[in-house]
């Protein structure tokens, strides 16, 4: 239940908002990944000696320390601050973390980054986060921080410090907290719980072996090879520290024991006890009882290397020990298209976590936040869910039946393991995911004769799967062991099947009696996804998978069901994004702070400006720009006499390359900077700084500004109170519905991720449902599903007579989002018109040919061609290699002429994309004001 607003709090919030505006501050500005730091940061490079290698070789680490200069928050009376160590991923270096380090330092922390032992310019060898080496190195770095006079101490030699890192660095954070109680808080991301399970996963919950000891798992062969190859590559770099004596070229920078054990396991496909001991010792699993540091676990749904089951085991183990733990499942991981974690994924949540546990800031709580991806069949969009705590799931049992009822299904495991089912390619999960959504993925992942299939009935109501479904199977093998791969597919009403996140569960059974059944309970892949009403869940059991090591000999299995069905977990979570209102989407929409400042100062001073006269002929025009000029002191004209309009019901794209003058124009539209010439009218009213008509405008110009210690709701109340408008006209609940923060609207903004602040930004911009909305590069930082949702938001917002202006350099997005476009180049408007008219190619043809396109131009316009009146008037080669043909010659005649001239034709198209129009106007090597004939016909060309 939403708590009622308290008037006294709202008045206080309004006063604080006004103070914030007067000060011109925006605390969130310093937390973004790689952004402009509001506080100067000093960087110091160090070479730090650590423990030697077993050979006696001395080792030093390449270290950087980032310290904020005076003015950053977080210092005590003596100028001391809490410290944060940032640890990089496997194969990386401290350079990967420089942008994050500067952002965290600007937020008021002393930040230490280092290149781990065995990588980059640090010495030594790779021991896989061994307690004796890499973990001991982290303790030495804590010693270094304790010696600094700008680091806060809890006791002599004990710095107030947290550690954050991803993958290899995430495991290091957990291990360091286990072996050094000076670590006060940690944020490990996309990392392992037990490295032996990470590389040799075993998803048989029971029945995998005779006796109590589970059978060893199945080698994750492709990932293990990539993992090891990156360490080898480092050893082959002659410029790296690995050139030191003692480096075996066959092992790169891996320690000899690690190298030898990997060779043995990779050759046999099975780990012996020595390999398992090594991997477990480099894991948090056996030492969770030593970790007292509050832990925020961030794990990715797109991760076939270290899956959600790894974070699940860590979270449950820490909670059992009484350690404070919060969990976030993000739409990313080792299989995501990018390798670096964004500010939204790691840096911003880490700051909120550290601010509380290291500096006594607002408590971000111990909620379970997770990303729920969009439906692969297009019915539902992506959204965020929030549950009060992790590990409180409910279950639903769905009945299963095979193609021939509950009877056994035989499988062949072919000799050599080929052909093998293809469900994932390490590091390229999205590629097969796209194939899976078209049906091709199922054909690759469930090979005939090598897979058993069991389906649930079509669901009567939607079901959200959060966690690891369980199924009991009966397995008969022709040998004494069996290797199988189980997966859960979502099947649409028309029979199309897709595999969520391309994940499978390896199962290895040993101690079997050939011909006799063994019952086994299998944990299907841990994930989060929807099964909509009318869809069903399909359990597929395969004998092969290309990502794993499989038996080389021929064998057969028979698989049947041994339980009531598939047990599906879910959680009682509320939607934190993606619901109702005008449209669900996290996006960057907010009013600039200076606009708020003008309104707040006018309110506080009790003064109101007198309304300027209305221009009658423009009274019904939401935005009219006439001859707008902005010239700087050096004579450069950022905006050079632009004129254009945005009418009611339009979504207008202000399009141009970086430096075209778009942002400068947007700032002049709301009076943030003064124009040197020309006028701007909103609904007939001239715009100047603080003009009353701006109360009818919402704008994102330079991002939202919020008070970090107030909740999202109270920030909105503060903003609206500062404008002096009637609270009843705020449409607060409608704006919050658009942002869809859910219960997070009641939490302090300091605890928000970047995406959540963006969603709060849209609520702020749409308070009062303004008639004109101005958005400068609104898709910055949004992923494809969020961008797709943004299109619907803007289209619906413009319905009913409201108007939206979007500036962007993303041509494809403008084409799909906007109804009209204004093209700027070098400060001038060079074209404006309806998008549909601009991309219509009536009277023009695009021809794709094989070979040299110049031959096509010659064939059409040269001797024997179709040139002249009534034929081809012009043929030119576009930047993408296609031939653009203008004129009235029929397209069949064009094709016939090209074929006659021996020019192979691959495609003919009568419609172009907005990018082609844009490049014809502002492409390299072309005059800025020269437009092609088609553009001139479709829109208004400025010369």
TrEMBL record:
Alphabetically ordered keywords of this record: ATP-binding, Hydrolase, Nucleotide-binding, Signal, Transport
MF-aspect GO terms: hydrolase activity
Organism domain of life: Bacteria
Signal peptide: 1-27
PANTHER family in the record: ABC TRANSPORTER, ATP-BINDING PROTEIN
Keyword Transport found: yes
Stored Pfam families: ABC_tran (PF00005), Peptidase_S15 (PF02129), PepX_C (PF08530)
Residue stretches making up the ABC transporter domain: 623-851
Family listed: Belongs to the ABC transporter superfamily.
Gene3D superfamilies recorded: alpha/beta hydrolase, Galactose-binding domain-like, P-loop containing nucleotide triphosphate hydrolases
InterPro entries: AAA+_ATPase, AB_hydrolase_fold, ABC_transporter-like_ATP-bd, ABC_transporter-like_CS, Galactose-bd-like_sf, P-loop_NTPase, TAT_signal, Xaa-Pro-like_dom
SMART domains in UniProt: AAA, PepX_C
Name of the protein described by the UniProt record: Alpha/beta fold hydrolase
